Amino acid sequence: MDVAADDAFDEQCDYLFKAVLIGDSGVGKTNLISRFAKDEFRLDSKPTIGVEFAYRNIKVIDKLIKTQIWDTAGQERFRAITSSYYRGALGAMLVYDITKRATFVNVRKWLRELREFGGDDMVVVLVGNKSDLAQSREVEKEEGKGYAETERLCFMETSALQNQNVEEAFLEMITKIHDIISHKSL
Ligand code: GDP
Q1: Which residues lie below 8 Å from residue 27, measured CB to CB, with a gap of 6+?
Q2: Is 130 close to ligand 1, i.e. is its CB under 6 Å away?
Q3: 161 Cβ inside 6 Å of ligand 1
Q4: ipTM strictly over 0.95?
Q5: Tens of pLDDT along 22-59?
Q6: Measured distance CA(52)–CA(180) in Å, rounded
Q7: Between the CA of residue 49 and those of 71, 80, 103, 127, 143, what are the distances in Å?
Q8: Which of 19, 55, 68, 83 reaches 20 to 30 Å from 40, CA-CA?
Q9: Cβ(30)–Cβ(69) under 8 Å?
Q10: Beta-strand relationship, 63-71 and 15-23
């Protein structure tokens, strides 16, 4: 999509959402985002804070929604994610790797950060990625689901590799944000 076409969409679209991906390095964030954004995948970078983002346009009921999804571009490795990454985000996908328990343990830390910088109203989907690697599983599905229920998060296991549940996870987040916004504007 070129810039002119993109601007035209901005004028037509009813909502523009910002959503962020977060979680330990190597859990599959970049693969999830590129799966979801598909042919509309456009990696722009914001060099000042070293993040990248992609867009996806979706129709929910009768509203045209443009979602701008931010990826850490590996900056989490250097603990370089700052409050500006989260600012203005209405949704977050908090990702761990079901084959690496440490990435699930760290979900608590990422959630704390999300709530500190993004506020309590943010829609958060907890995602256990790499579900195709069942033989190496270190985190049971029930455990992820149980934690999500305790923290009132949505939950899904995905495989970016096999394209399982990726669309569903993003759509869950976007639909929830849409619900919240349309209730607020009533
Ligand atoms: P990020 O650091 O969180 O952005 O993670 P990446 O998207 O770069 O993925 C890290 C590694 O995990 C890469 O080698 C990917 O090919 C691999 N990977 C990502 N998602 C999956 C998945 O669903 N299944 C499997 N088996 N590997 C995956």
Answers
A1: 95, 96, 97, 100, 103, 129, 130
A2: yes
A3: yes
A4: yes
A5: 999 999 998 898 888 864 444 555 555 566 778 888 88
A6: 26
A7: 11, 8, 24, 25, 34
A8: 83
A9: no
A10: parallel
Nearest in space to 122 (alpha carbons), one of 29, 18, 50: 18
Task: Return the half-sphere exposure (C-beta side, CA atoms, 13 A cut-off) of residue 46.
Answer: 14
Q: How far is the CA of 55 from the centre of ligand 1 (A)?
A: 20
Query: What is the per-residue pLDDT across 111-132, written as a single tens digit (0 to 9) for each?
Result: 999 999 988 889 999 999 999 9
The C-alpha atoms of residue 65 and residue 153 are separated, in whole angstroms, by 22
Using alpha carbons, list the distances in angstroms from residue 81 to 41, 50, 57, 58, 86. 22, 9, 26, 28, 9
Q: What is the pTM of this model?
A: 0.89
Residue 133, ligand 1, Cβ within 6 A = yes
Between β-strands 51-60 and 63-71, what pairing exists: parallel, antiparallel or unpaired?
Answer: antiparallel
In contact, 154 and 111? CB cutoff 8 Å = no
Q: Which tokens in the block code for residue 178? A: 């849409």
Residue type present at position 107: V
Tokens of 21: 């991906």
Q: Using a 6 Å cutoff on CB, does residue 160 contact ligand 1? A: yes
